[in-house]
Amino acid sequence: ILDDRLARNDDGLAKLQTRATTPRNSIEPSNLTCARCGEAFLRERKEGKEELPGDQVTKETKTKGTTLSTPNDMPIPTEVVGSLPRPLYLQKAYADYDAGTIKQDELIAAQDKAAEDSVKRMAQTGEVLLSDGEQRASSFATYPIIDTLGGAGLASNLAANGQYFAIFDDGHHRQLPRLTSGPFKYRTYAYDNFKKSAPYAQGTGHAMKTAVIAPSMLYLLYPLNGNVEGYPKDEFVKDLVNECEKDIRGCFEAGSQRVSMDFTEGRLASKKDPRNPWTGAELLKTFVDLNNKVLERFSAEERENIGIHTCPGGDCDSVHSGEVPYASLLPSLFAMNAGYFLIQLASERDKTSVYKQIGESIRRDANGVKQVAFIGVTNPLNPKVEAAEEVAADLVEASKYIAKDQLGATDDCGFSPFSIDVKPKHGSPDFARDVAMQKIKARVEGAKQASDELGF
User: For a tag site, which of 11, 80, 236, 363 has the least CB within 10 Å?
Assistant: First the structure.
């Protein structure tokens, strides 16, 4: 959870800064300063911003007494990955909670406010399945084991000095805890957060989805070399698979129509970064096999609504493995028996080449389920909003290589996977939230245009 922040001076040179406050559980807290954001964290987000107009879907189903849209409203389906930038007031609340200046109920109130805003604004974009933007999560990867990036809630059998998850291109890094004893159990499940946010979708005409962390990420909590005394790795893996299955089933039982597993470590597994030893340990097959251990516990019908998300990272507007070619990940990605895949592509240099690889690798029968590739058509790291026409053009091009009934549209990544992210290329997280909503709207409209052009 070690969170070094990248600050840039007027000459554009980079240096790492660490916020000088007393850490919880001996974990360095997040630094909230960024030269491009100034004192933004001391400002409250201005209320009453103009809402984005949204298109309403027409095909509906009834669930628990509420009219909800289904994920099949458009011939080319679309789906959000999950996260949205946390507004300034929420990021400040996280920092204040870690510093001990506010109580937990005040942090929860800020989370509630941001989650409700996320759901209701997303509904106005025309997005079919809504997300609360993961506003209650410390990060996409650490929500099961810790409450904040500053260290609150770290279990007694986890230590702060674990492996790096990733070292990003701009110089900052994210570090995981280290497992010191068994058994391994989640502290928080994704469905816990989902249940709190689900009521916000009532009356919007939309259902909700959620994202969970893949077990392959949490596999890195166990030391790369050596064993945990009294807790062999195979016992850890059994517990890990059980917990991930419980997380997914709980989300469905709570009303989530789709559940996607975040698998950003897939591409990173082939980076071979000497600063980060696990990336050179040939773990990709281990990751795929581990994720399949979870997927095999679900029926084909259930797996139609379980997805896998892959990307080269997306934190502080920077990536960790963009230079790793997709050929290193494909076709291993589609060896996982999931029903659909959310794949970063909008920011890829040679998109057509990857479209071809997807078309050659995707399966029509993955242990009883037809796989669908949702290609990235918007870039969350770039504040420029894609035009709907650009989105449509990408989808039409992709349809030349990917079967039309196996093609969907998504964003390259979650818009802000970590709870503290100043979004330096955007200038502030609040502006980045506005941009995210515009990008989602462009994706939805572009998918409709492409569907029309392709004759659906």
Answer: 11
402 neighbors 368 (Cβ within 8 angstroms) = no
Residue where the block lists tokens 């349809």:
399
Cis-peptide into 75, omega within 30 deg = no
What SS3 state is found at 17? strand
Sole residue written with tokens 């959310």: 342
Give the residue-averaged pLDDT of 232-247: 98
End-to-end CA distance of the chain: 46
Query: CB of 321 within 8 A of CB of 310?
Result: no
β-pair type (178-179, 158-159): antiparallel
Total Cβ atoms within 10 A of residue 414 = 29
Q: Please give the structure tokens belonging to residue 61.
A: 């189903």
Alpha-carbon span 354 to 441, nearest angstrom: 25
Check residue 240 and report its DSSP letter.
H
Closest to 26 in 3D by CA, of 140, 177, 165: 177
Mean pLDDT of the 262-290 span: 97
